[in-house]
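Example 215.
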Amino acid sequence: MPSDPEIKQSVLDTAKAMVECGLVEGTAGNVSARLPGGRVVLTPSSLDYDSMTLEDLVVTDAEGKVLEGDRPPTTEKALHLACLRQYEDIGAVMHCHALFASMFAVNHEPIPCVIEEFDIYVGGEVPVAEYRLTGSDELAGEASRWLGDRAAVLMANHGLLCVGKDSGHTLKIAQLVERTAQLVWGARMMGEPVPLPESTLEKFAPIYKVVGRLR
Ligand SMILES: [Zn+2]
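Predicted structure in complex with zinc ion:
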């Protein structure tokens, strides 16, 4: 397993990249990753990503008690910890407000699995978790329960939640989901998107379950 400094640097780099890629604006969105010994490192609440440094990150135990750091952790702390507690196989969590994915979230509409790489890297269509208030334990429970066999879930009227091997991996998942949401949106403008054959979905979805997020 990578060391604390390596994991923290990856969380910080991912948080900054999330803004640079346009997956969030301002101080929205948040990133977390598992540290050795059952600890978790999270981005802090309401701090500009441009000026964020390693010292601004917050380390908690699995229940959210702050162990290191002077700032409060992200207000979506419960969401991140619920995912990491529930799924031993994931190493990191990212929440963002990607524009096209959020359009599907507002319409309570899953993002369909229309390209092969989506099936392999996400595990199938991205479902929609029911609306719950931001920052609540109810949102954490509702959103995390969808991530047993896939890498992403939409949070109704809110945004996107992705899980992966490490924080860099969650960024790649978020970018793929956002690109596919835009692709489907555009394809619908042109006409009726054609689904992948069922046989392809059956062939590729198990690949995600086997190797998609192993640390
Ligand atoms: Zn949010």
